[in-house]
Amino acid sequence: MSPLLIPVILAGGKGERFWPLSRRQYPKQFLSLDGTGVSLLQGTADRLLSIAEGWENLWVITAAHLAEGVQQQLPHLPLANVLVEPEGRDTAAAVAWATVEVAKRYGESAVVGFFPADHWIDDRSAFEETLAAGVALAQEQGAIVTLGIQPAYPATGYGYIEQGEAIGTFGSKPGYRVARFTEKPDLATATEFVASGRFSWNGGIFIFQAGVGLQELSIHAPEVLTPLSESGVAAYPTLPKISIDYALMEKTQRACVLPVHFGWDDLGDWNALSRLLAQDPQGNVAIGTHEHLDSKGCVVYNDRPEEAIVTLGLEDVVVVRAGNATLVAHKSRTQDIKAVLKQLQDQDLDQRLDLL
């Protein structure tokens, strides 16, 4: 018998905006960013174990160079449940391959859910209730369900989902057809979306019956599904690099959204620590030793317990001391860390100094 839901954790990301703490072999999902010592991947697995009814029904899909790290972080996870991608082809390939494998083991009526490994969620009970509602919606309506996060502010770095026709209540949660997806709008548009009350943030969590997912992928993304169905992981070099949002969610007529109200954060860059951690009276947050005079709104991460980071008269600055690199950036520029990493690669500093 299958459990209510077969969860698949998407754990192949790079987490580059958390450099220099996040590195190629030890990316964001392996990190603990709240000072507890529990990594984001471990926290995600722990949240899903109850609804999966144990480790034997929990799956992870990850990159080849991260597979060993996944096993170290999740030692109870069966090796057969770790799907190892030989190269990154974005989320459409990951979702399609995992769905094929879940259908083989559990049958096409099994409900599969996809969960990013690097998100923070604050209310486990509400999260589990929402997943149960998502399973009911997927089963009763043959829906491809996405969880829509209640917007806390008009963010321009997230995609948005517009609620369409109401289709009923599942558990205690109302469900809606998806009217449209919008990728990362400008501030004016995002403000309008939030004010309307009809839009949710796209949290990147999807739930559907395996057979429904395979059918819709065969219609809208055969260039992804067909090679995987025929050749499995060997097909990866031939697959297009495309996200599941573009390949399937924006095309299918079965997309439904389940608005959720638990605390959520995708921890996209160092600014997220200001939302995750307790702030001092001046609005600073820190992991590790940080002393300051007249500094306000700073984010400090210090991985050396025997050393101190001292700031004087700084405002809205990120300071990260990790390994052999130190990052100092204004909070408004943390989205540009990827550009800095490319510059390091162009100058060959990543190889000479082992910075990535």
Mind explaining what this structure looks like?
The protein is of the alpha/beta class and 356 residues long. It has 11 helices and 17 strands. Helix 3 packs across helix 7. The protein is globular. The termini are far apart. 40% of the residues are buried. The model has no long low-confidence stretch (mean pLDDT 95).
Summary tags:
356 residues, alpha/beta, Spore Coat Polysaccharide Biosynthesis Protein SpsA, Chain A, five-stranded mixed barrel, four-stranded mixed β-sheet
**CATH homologous superfamily of the largest domain - what is it?**
Spore Coat Polysaccharide Biosynthesis Protein SpsA, Chain A
Provide mean pLDDT, rounded: 95
The low-confidence parts are none
CATH architecture descriptor text of the largest domain:
Alpha-Beta Complex
Principal-axes shape call: globular
Number of domains: 2
Helix tally equals 11
User: Remind me, CATH topology of the largest domain?
Assistant: Spore Coat Polysaccharide Biosynthesis Protein SpsA, Chain A
Multimer state: single chain
Q: Give the percentage of residues in beta strands.
A: 25-35%
Q: Characterize the biggest β-sheet.
A: 5 strands, mixed, barrel
Give the SSE order as H and E letters.
Answer: EHEHEHEEHEEEHEHHHEEHEEEEEEHH
CATH structural class of the largest domain: Alpha Beta
